[in-house]
Amino acid sequence: MSVANxxxxxxxxxxxxxxxxxxxxxxxANKKPAKTGxxxxxxxxxxxVRRLGLDGDSICDTVNHGGPDQAVYAYASEDTExxxxxxxxxxxxxxxxxSLGENLTLRGVDVTNAxxxxxxxxxxxxxxxxxxxxxxxxxAAFWNVDRLPKRFIAAGRPGAYLRVLTEGAVGAGDEVRxxxxxxxxxxLAETLRALTGDRSLAPKLLTAPELPESVHRSARTWxxxx
Length: 226
Hints:
Elements: E1 2-14, E2 17-19, E3 34-36, E4 40-42, E5 47-50, E6 53-54, E7 72-76, H1 77-86, E8 104-107, E9 119-122, E10 125-132, H2 137-143, H3 148-155, E11 160-166, E12 168-170, E13 175-180, H4 188-195, H5 202-205, H6 213-223
Parallel strand pairs: 7-8
Antiparallel strand pairs: 1-4, 1-8, 1-13, 2-3, 5-6, 5-12, 7-11, 9-10, 9-13, 10-11
């Protein structure tokens, strides 16, 4: 399956920074500067994508980020533009590719409604939709926006963490082609809602074998299944 003009707008790698203590209200402040790779910036050349991430990228918080189920983070440029409009009076910089901390900025791809387990051919890679992104205080401090994690969840535009099924190079301009879409139909948006409070969706989580086992354990706990 292919949608006209579905492509990689930019490939972004981390520019490691010392994140300052959070200045905005509404989110627990960081006590001291911390190293973070959330500041991603476009690169001109294709990048090799490995099972655990992109060559040249940096993950500073390996406890909460990274691993096979979070190897690559993709975000739609259309959603970035939506955030720019929503927060125009609050941001002190203009959003651009990489501003969401994403490795792949996509154009013409409905990331929010991608199905868990969906497989994409991107450049020379094959990637699989794994889980939605749930934002943290690092993201809030990077943007310096009040209550950003709660607002991000409420907006329902989480982006996609992807597994790498076939390693290869990806560059700006590469086509994004959907190879397979699982019949269970569980989307990233629904998974985000389930993981952030909507327990009525717990049964549907169990229909998606492509979700991490940790998500299935949570769903079984909510349903009282041992």
